Amino acid sequence: MSDLILISGGRLMDPGQGLDGVRDILVGKGRVLWIGHGPPPQEPEKVLQGRGLVVSPGFVDLHCHLREPGQEEKETMASGTLAACRGGFTTVCAMPNTRPPVDSPPLVEFLKDKASREGLVRVLPVGALTRGRAGKELVEMEAMARAGAVAFSDDGHPTGSRIMRQALEFSRYLGLPVMDHCEDPEIAQEGQVNEGVVSLRLGLRGMPSQAEEAAVARDVAVAGLTGGHVHIHHVSSQGSLEHIRRGKEKGVKVTCEATPHHLTLTEDSLLAPIPYDTNLKVNPPLRSEQERKALAQALREGLIDAVATDHAPHSLVDKLVEFSRAGPGMSNLETALGSLMALVHRGELDLLTLVARLTVGPARILGKELGSLKVGWPADVVIFDPDREWTVDPQALASRGKNTPLAGEKLKGKVMATLVGGKAAYLDPSLKLEVPESRKAKI
Amino acid sequence: MTWHHHHVLDLDDFSREEIEAVLETASAMKEVLTRPVPKVHTLRGKRVFSLFYEPSTRTRASFELAAKTLSAEVVGITAQVSSVVKGESLLDTIKTLEALGADAIVLRHPEAGAPYLAARYCRASIVNAGDGAHAHPTQALLDIFSLRQRLGDLEGLKVVIVGDILHSRVARSNIWGLKALGARVVLSGPPTLLPMSFADAYAGVEVEWDLERALEGAGAVIALRLQWERQQDLIPSLEEYVAFYQLNAQRLSRARPGAPILHPGPVNEGVEIDPEVARGPQSLIDEQVTNGVAVRMALLYLLLGGAHE
């Protein structure tokens, strides 16, 4: 049984119901019970002082690698969901590129079971799109959907045209998105970094943004053909955005996400201060400042529906190697808000829009009652201080993946508390759940 | 003398003065090499490891001879890049050599950036002897030394680098070094081996796909080895490459009379260069080999002896 908790005096930002202002929220029995000013309808057992802080729906991450089963040296259900709590995420979609891949109903069940026992946030399983993620045969989509898969993706691998067409036919029927890691392999040629000035200088194989754009164009076309819902993972280029915009304008069911790193970092950081820093190796690669700006603008406009972390934890040995041998990805859950707040602090994005892309945006793609604090909905809440500075220390991360390029960076914006289903899953040491004075008197 | 490097990874962080310092020291070393007993005691007691993850004859022999001429202890290691994840990693090997008392590690590696990884986690001086398609600073320094010995000042000199620029570490390091000394660098090769964006990647560098136009008025030419076995997908045929990009006497006639010809070796005679040109009076190819030892002596001296004692 969860306590009746009152979060009082905070600035409630809930773009899902158009709220932005000081409000109190009462939660209990895992749900939002009341939002308003003044005395709550029921007396709270605990009070969380939100004055000076932002209170918003818990963040929803469409794209996260929890690594279980099979790669527990990189992350576990427990460590990954603790990292999610600390980052303000109350729901994460777990990508299926595990060992074995989540490509059958029993594996979806396994993940749900694991999450219910060890997870600290809601974990929604994304099913693989093809058996063994081999790109050859479609998984049993309907059976997996019934088992609880919320979407399908062969993330990490591009999807072939035949599979995409079949999958999107089922997508229309099942009402679930098919997510694609867009990369035309013949154009990409196993590029290690963005193709251009930086790849030439470093002598690394380049992967041009056109490799992504070609695949996005194909996906939009096939989604239009089938009426299925295609969701583009980690969009990284302006050209891709143009295809997505045209698709949306024509009424094609296409949505997309962008990562904190593509929104805040560029390929130039590969040259200095640490040349060939393997913590900057991601797929798709970091692009130019021009592309980054286009992404930030598209996020503002809503052409990009959601920020998704692509949290990709790796062990030290995966990254302490030559650049081309290093695993791609960053440990992102705990630094996402802090790095994205830089966009707000320097005026590239307003705070309410950022919150929308972390909450209602991704929730709509999933079609679930998440990402907004409507009365009766799950009491998944994040409380953050948009101005609090902190320094990233990889060793202090809850995630097993210490692979962040932000070590030693000062970020401005910090999660102070996270409630999942009305229970405090994370509290900054400076915050306390207090017993209200009136109640103390009674006891 | 201007010198602040603990490692030599590439020439992108070398100032003109630092390159001059290397060239000046190399001249003195070249004199040592002409003595009846070419040996000095400068680096006695220093340990130099050569760690090669790629086959090499000349670079490796050149480094080891350079170190021995300076009386350093030299240990050569041929290593394999393990395809097995659990194999001994580059860093394990580097740490082992450090524990064995390495003062300098000369590293050749097939992956771009490997020396940067080594340098970040190792106290010994790392000397890059070629990393993937990225850099080969000692080759560039010996090319520049050879040009300086023949031509003097390089300010304003048009230097054409021709061949597979995309995969060439020699070209990349030469671009930095030649630019630092004020030379005008023109790159030439077929479009699949020479993306136009090289001109954006290196300010002031020109890209000219037509070799004959590139050679017009050139003061020096560096021909690169074509690694046909690696580039089969990128050029239609060897014959086509030879027909349009081979350095021959007729094409060379467009360059300034006597313009020196360089090649990092080993030469594919009859492919990237006509044998007559390779062995002709304008060729510096043999001198490059001798100069390579002097330049590598200079670097080892500057890293391990000069500035510290």
Write up what this structure looks like:
The complex is a heterodimer of chains A (443) and B (309). By secondary structure, chain A is α/β, with parallel strands linked by helices. Chain A has a single domain, classed as TIM Barrel, CATH 3.20.20. Chain A has helices at residues 77-87, 105-118, 141-147, 161-174, 185-188, 197-202, 209-226, 238-249, 260-264, 289-301, 316-319, 336-345, 351-358, 360-366, 437-442, and strands at 5-14, 19-28, 31-36, 46-49, 54-57, 59-64, 89-94, 122-127, 151-153, 178-180, 193-194, 206-207, 230-232, 254-258, 306-307, 381-391, 410-420, 423-427, 433-434. In chain A, the strands form 3 sheets. In chain A, strands 1, 2, 3, 4, 5, 16, 17, 18 and 19 form a 9-stranded mixed sheet that branches. Chain A has an 8-stranded parallel sheet with strand order 6-7-8-9-10-13-14-15. The radius of gyration of chain A is 21 Å and the shape is globular. By secondary structure, chain B is α/β, with parallel strands linked by helices. Chain B has 2 domains: 16-136 and 289-306, Aspartate/ornithine carbamoyltransferase (Rossmann fold); 137-284, Rossmann fold (3-Layer(aba) Sandwich), CATH 3.40.50. Helices cover 41% and strands 14% of the residues of chain B. Chain B has 13 helices and 9 strands. In chain B, helix 2 links the parallel strand 1 (47-52) and strand 2 (73-78). Chain B is globular. The mean pLDDT of chain B is 94. Classes of the chains: A alpha/beta (443), B alpha/beta (309).
